[in-house]
C-alpha cells in the first residue's frame, strides 16, 4: 500500500511518497540543489511527531550526494543512485 503525505515548508520541501509496511511507514523527502542538512529533515520530523514515532519505521532525505550519512535527528541522507 502506498500513501502520499505532503506538508509544504517555507522552502518548498514536500514529504512523500511513503511506503506502508505492517502499519509502519517510511518517509522520504527530496532535495535537488543542495547538500542535505538537519534543517532539511524538519518536514520528516514533523510528520513523525504527528503520526507517532512507533508508526514511522525510517526516513531519508534523497539528494545528489555520492554517499549516505546520518543526520542528528535519526534520519539519513540517501543518494539518488541508491534508489535503483
Describe the structure concisely.
It contains one helix and five strands; from the N terminus they run βββαββ. The protein has 84 residues and is α/β, with parallel strands linked by helices. Residues 1-12 have low confidence and may be disordered.
Layout of helices and strands, plus pairs?
Blueprint: E1 2-3, E2 18-21, E3 24-30, H1 42-51, E4 56-63, E5 76-79
Parallel strand pairs: 3-4, 4-5
Antiparallel strand pairs: 1-2, 2-3
Order of helices and strands: EEEHEE
Whole-number tally of structural domains: 1
Give the proportion of residues in helices: 10-25%
Uncertain stretches: 1-12
Counting helices, strands and paired strands, the structural category is: alpha/beta
CA distance, first residue to last residue:
20 Å
Count of individual helical segments: 1
Strand content: 25-35%
Overall mean pLDDT: 75
Largest sheet: 5 strands, mixed
Shape: globular
Strand order of the largest sheet: 1-2-3-4-5
Radius of gyration: 12 Å
Number of strands: 5
Describe the structure.
The two termini are 20 Å apart. The protein has a 5-stranded mixed β-sheet, covered by helices on one side. The longest helix is centred in the middle third of the chain and has 10 residues. The protein has one domain. It is 12% helix and 30% strand. Helix 1 links the parallel strand 3 and strand 4. The chain is built from 1 helix and 5 strands; from the N terminus they run E-E-E-H-E-E. The N terminus is likely disordered.
